[in-house]
Amino acid sequence: MKLSESALIVLSILLAFAIDAWWDGRQDEIREARMIEALKLESEENRTELNKTLEDHVFNRTGTDTFFRASPQEMGQVSVDSTGRYISALVVMWTYDPETSAAEVFLSSSQQLSLKGQRIRLLASRLLRQLRDAEEERQAYFNYALESTEILARTSTSSFRQGASYIPAMALRLGPPLLEELRSDEDFVASVGMKLYQEMIYNLELRDVSSTLDSLRAAFIEE
Predict the structure, then answer these.
(1) Number of domains in the chain
(2) Residue 49: how many CB atoms within 10 A of its CB?
(3) Residue 163: which pLDDT band, with cuts at 50, 70 and 90?
């Protein structure tokens, strides 16, 4: 075999390897782009969900603060509709329940990632860690909300034993005097106070989650 023919064979083999490598790299790029797009869509939905939860926390804190601070005269001027809203703020909990399947798929992938992909993977890992940290506070928040709801059911008449789901009916039947009745119940006041405190701690955990979602949004548009 001539030297030129041998060189041609070697070049053909090297070219084939180069094409295979390019193709594998291109496939990795496509898979990474798909995972990033799925995570982006998931993050946008989670962002909307989180914003709603944070807004609900503001509603709860405002209503609870008014319940504690308002004078008896001010309480007596509350409407029936407002009575229901105040009671809801006192006992109803609002939690963040995000979808994390895209983030988990991204983290479980073993393929080589671009610098952008590595940055997003770090942020996705931080997000899941923060959500795990928030779960303990979420559970404590749930327990205090449940306790407050059970006390509310005991405070009202026996026909309203199911608690929070019957708040509008309670407000309509018992009216604004129910608020003063609840303020005189030491167990209820203490439970609501602990619920508010736990909600604030949980809210701080969610603020960290919010910051990471913002960082993810910025990372998605990086070149």
Answers:
(1) 1
(2) 14
(3) very low
